[in-house]
Amino acid sequence: MTEDIGKEFLRKTMYGNLPQSDQDKGLPQPPLTLGPEPGQTLFDLPAPAEVRVPPLDLREAIERRRTLREYADRPLSLGELSYLLWCTQGVHEITSRPATRRTVPSAGARHAFETYLLINRVEGLKPGLYRYIAVDHKLGVVNLSDGVADQVAAACLDQKHIKSSAVLFIWVAVAYRMLWRYPMRGYRYLFMDAGHVCQNLYLAAESIGCGVCAIGAYSDQALNSVLGVDGEEQFAIYAATVGKRG
């Protein structure tokens, strides 16, 4: 009888079963982030310190938080989008190690995610697919063609809130950024880190009158394809819709 793949994964990623890491072998560290593509159109985001957000007690945010799938038609401001990006993947500094210190925890400060955004309703931005350039706090255009929202929605099993949201956050794992230090066990940490990031999004959204719905139901192959990633070295790991409360 074939062993359950989940149990096999847990066994093979136990510490006693791990090979020597590429870090321990002295192999070069992969880049901390993916920079802009040559010739990619970039948009500046408001500086996080300049974005004014109504104060909200942490306990109140936690108690108030609910998953939301129905959104008002009002757009997010560019400042609000900047705030959400900063709260989920913002870079405080690059250390001499080198590593990025960010607004969310990550195993070994590896921070293996790139944030893609399906923009539906954000003031000052044309609808389409973008990527957050975290170190520079900018947005880079990925795909503004007609129908890209339909492709993303289809990849997410046609869940209606994909297109009715103001923004869909999609986190893509750059696997070797984590595996360089933590061989196969690094896959565990990728999924843990995704939870840290999405929880920050839920709580930050509360302070600007928005709701969030985390999404794990999608066709991996279809979503990776529309994002332009290979599905092995880079792959979609989690997603979440965001929109204004009614």
Count of alpha/pi helices: 8
Number of separate domains:
1
Instruction: Give helix % range.
Output: 25-40%
- Specify the oligomeric state: single chain
CATH class: Alpha Beta
By CATH, the superfamily comes out as NADH Oxidase
The outline comes out as globular
Structural Rg = 18 Å
**Strand residues, percent:** 15-25%
CATH topology term? NADH Oxidase
| Strand segment tally | 9
Compute the average pLDDT.
Answer: 96
Give me the CATH architecture, please.
Answer: 3-Layer(aba) Sandwich
Placed side by side, the strands forming the largest sheet appear as 1-6-5-4-7-9-8
Low-confidence stretches: none
Helix and strand pattern = HEHHEEEEEHHEHHEHE
Structural class: alpha+beta
Biggest sheet overview: 7 strands, antiparallel
Instruction: State the separation between the terminal residues, measured CA to CA.
Output: 52 Å
Summarize the structure.
30% of the residues lie in helices and 22% in strands. With 246 residues, it is of the alpha+beta class. Strand 5 and strand 6 (138-143) form a beta hairpin.
